[in-house]
Batch of 2 targets.
Target 1
Amino acid sequence: MATQHSRSAARLMNTPAIFLLLVWMLVPLCMTIYFSFLDYRPLRGVYEWADGFENYARFLSSGSFTDSVVTTLIMVGGILAITVIGGVLLAMLLDQPIWGQGIVRILVIAPFFVMPTVSALVWKNMFMNPVNGLFAYLWKFFGGTPVDWLSQAPIFSIIWIVSWQWLPFATLILLTAIQSLDSEQMEAAEMDGAGFFSRFGYITLPHLARAITVVVLIQTIFLLSIFAEIFVTTNGAFGTRTLTYLVYQRVLESQNIGLGSAGGIVAVILANIVAIFLMRIVGKNLDN
Amino acid sequence: MARAVSNRRQIVTTIVAWTIGLLIFFPILWTILTSFKTEAEAIADPPSLLFFNWTLENYEVVQERSNYGKFLWNSIILAVGSTVIGLLIAIPSAWSMAFQPGKRTKDIMMWMLSTKMMPAVGVLFPIYILARNSGLFDTHILLIAVLMLMNLPIIIWMLYTYFKEIPVDILEAARMDGASLKSEILYVLTPMALPGIASTMLLNIILAWNEAFWTLNLTTINAAPLTAFIASYSSPEGLFYAKLSAASTMAIAPILIMGWFSQKQLVRGLTFGAVK
């Protein structure tokens, strides 16, 4: 009796969250799907049904889509490579006995808490500016010609900025994972004469495999939606238009709602493919 | 002998770690230092690290000229508002799933998480047009609702993992002693859950404070927080490095400090318990 009572109370307590999330997910998503089958261009007063999957066909066959997918892959791949490799190395370093370890940790983690618009603008102006930036000064100091980073190496520059923001995240999670490594196992391997690289390859890396997977998946989901960093640096110019940015431009800048919505659905599908893998890992963990 | 070697090794790793740490932190340090320079010194060649005429002028100019206070206030309202409302909805939800798990609890948890995986750009236009048509565009209510819903799955997941650590025996003991559901929550659960709730709150404020997709696309002036204020510096007029730095320093300082306190919770909150 009491259990039944508390069980229905429990259901009642869970209702608001489920209801709100359901509305938040379903209503806009259904609207996007609906819009994706329209020829809807408010600036020209066009609002009619599109010809079947016309928007999808046009979006998927356009050169800008292919370019944006390539840009997205390079960007996400580059950031993942830098943050994961850098994160593993940094985590191993911070796991060593260091004087002032707490402070070093704080220094390393700090960039993650800087808001995206600030970090993008600080890097853009104070470091990458070809006239007054600190890099330009360094280049001149060593006798080189200053580089206009954001127009000459735009994708690299954005990869650099975003990696700076996400390196702390990877480091922090990998450090947490590394600290759960059994130190006796490590010492035993050392006693048996295993060198640094074989210890790393046979003990540390396998131990970190799961954490690395989690870092890769979570970062991918966040990185697929990079927006502010592109918005305030190149505004999508110089080949830095990612899929997210392309959809944003179609929807809010050129106001081709039908086409943009089809693009939005494509982005949702692509993100969900990554999400499935993440969910599987998280789900397994929930059972234990 | 062995001790001397390991001591030397510690000296080397300490030097390497500090160097890397300072390099990673340098952009933030440089921003803070530049905020105390004059505009001329901010672009001086060669740049000076510490030996310049320290001034607070930029902070005054930024506050006077650009209505900084209003943006700051908006950031606070949006971050705190969305967090508090999110907690009010999430606490009962996470509590019920942690202590009264049913057959479908796991499915519900996974489904909630999946809503977080949806890319914002996929629903940009519907949210935008709903906001426009309802007259809620550029209002606190809209932004609080959107930020709250965006982070709700993370809040529920974090609270769930904290609640799961509370020993159930204690709850049963309280029930045996005749505690009602209400007093069970109020006198037994809440005190034990408070640390978890506090760290969830902290992380969520950080996430909401730094959110820069919806805040940039759904605001213009009235509800625009600091993310949008800083973005307005992307089309500069004249000398502005020192002022940009002052504005940036003010925008990141509170979160930087909160962030340092919530390092541990960050791992739990952003990996959904997959890394412990």
Note: Chain A has a mean pLDDT of 87.
Target 2
Amino acid sequence: MSLDKATVKNIANLARLEVRDDELEHLVGELSNILQFVEQLAEVNTDGVAPMTSVAHMELPRRADEVTDGNYPDKVLANAPECHDGFFLVPKVVE
Amino acid sequence: MTELTKLTLAAARDGLKAKNFTAVELANAHIAAMEKARGLNAFVTETPELALERAKLSDAKIAKGAGGAMEGLPIGMKDLFCTEGVPSTACSKILEGFVPPYESTVSANLKKAGAVVLGKTALDEFAMGSSNMTSAFGPVINPWKRKSDPAAQLVPGGSSGGSAAAVAARLVLAATGTDTGGSIRQPAAFCGLVGIKPTYGRCSRWGIIAFASSLDQAGPMTRTVRDAAIMLGSMVGYDPKDSTSAQVAVPDFEAALSGDIRGLKVGIPREYRPDGLSDEISKLWEDGIAMLKAAGATPVDISLPHTKYALPTYYIVAPAECSSNLARYDGVRYGLRVEGKTLDEMYAKTRAAGFGKEVRRRILIGTYVLSAGYYDAYYIKAQKVRRLIADDFAKAFQSVDVILTPTAPSPAFGIGETDDNPVTMWLNDVFTIPTSLAGLPGLSLPTGLSSDGLPLGLQLIGRPFDEETVLKVADVMEKAAGFSAAPSGLEG
């Protein structure tokens, strides 16, 4: 499958990655090339095959729904680019 | 003291126990080597003070006859493991300034066993690459040189290229790696080392910066098979903090090296002999088969029919998981932030500035194959083919005990010698990716040199949680191959 510029722009938006207009042409070629490479999977007969989500032959373990960690807001915020009064700061989202 | 850097991990361990030298002396010798070899760019962060502090503690323990399996042994830590109080970058600009307030389980296990960490080693950005050229901090140089052109700078492979270069250059006795599609085994082959990716679930993934969670596994990179067995034992173990950590017993891996492989059946998959495989690699493989025969094992011709689909399957599954895992880098909680007028603009600008080319490419592909309308055609299809690939191995292991293949299709290549097509670079991992998709243990062992004097590796693949057989066979082959070459200037 060959992508077009509008599709690549849309994917970039979904991924929250800013892509400049002058990068689009190159990306269209590169991503189309990759998709053509992976599309050879279409020739494999997978009728009746269950998708493999994990190689670990195990049930996901369960545990009691209890708080077992936390109570160190300073550690949680220590790496924040901006924080204030125990909160992460972000640009204004509500007018 | 330079001879201390030429010891194996096992010999250094025994030397410390016999009090032939101290852990501080061992650490100092390696710190000096590390500082002298900065031109290789193998380390992102050096931590000599921390190392010496730890070495002093090790000496105190050893004096009392105590200490763990890695007590006082200097190692490198791939900069994908979060280490408490020490910057952890994944070699990405987006983790600029990030200092983890916690320690990954594997690095904690190693420290508990007494290992002395000299620093954090370089990798391809977020472990996405096979050359170390996608690192935000510049390429790593392979200490091995071509006979015909010693001035050419070669890649160490990737993504665990800093670890590989550091072990090969005798800056550390061993180092950690992580492997998603070959990131331990391919750089081990390129640098003349032993590297094992254990069974998925053997090592905890907790605290390892995530790339593709259904594939990522940690493992050791060392100069001998015995060293790999020792270090692996100190990395593995059940961890309730990783939901896919396996509750299986931890064997004594070193004790598995019995030297006796008589009667073992070794699968030789015909699909690993593609058109265009170099004569050199073919011969290496034939030589390996001959060594196994001479030791009393029986080669068995096997078929893994879906092998050719492993690479396209991987390049749907891994980018899909990567796009999801890397969504967390948003400029809010840690790392780089580029301001924008709105929250969305801040996200998009931060991520565009923080991620390199290869990472961006994989995020975009992953986002596409997971997007509405394409999810079934790409992602679900790839998961179905992944099962067929895993079933191929399961079927083969009904009749063989271990599988032998080449590790990589070529020796180390030069920095800047590859073309711009990402798919060409991905072909480096054509022999290692199937094992990863099936979650099986895979080990790379150096068994020969190319005509140009560069190391070449063979891969041994085992049944789930049967690292012992893999290590046992590797140990026998190591002795038969007698690989003793080292980068120029570092011999014997």
Note: Chain A has a mean pLDDT of 92.
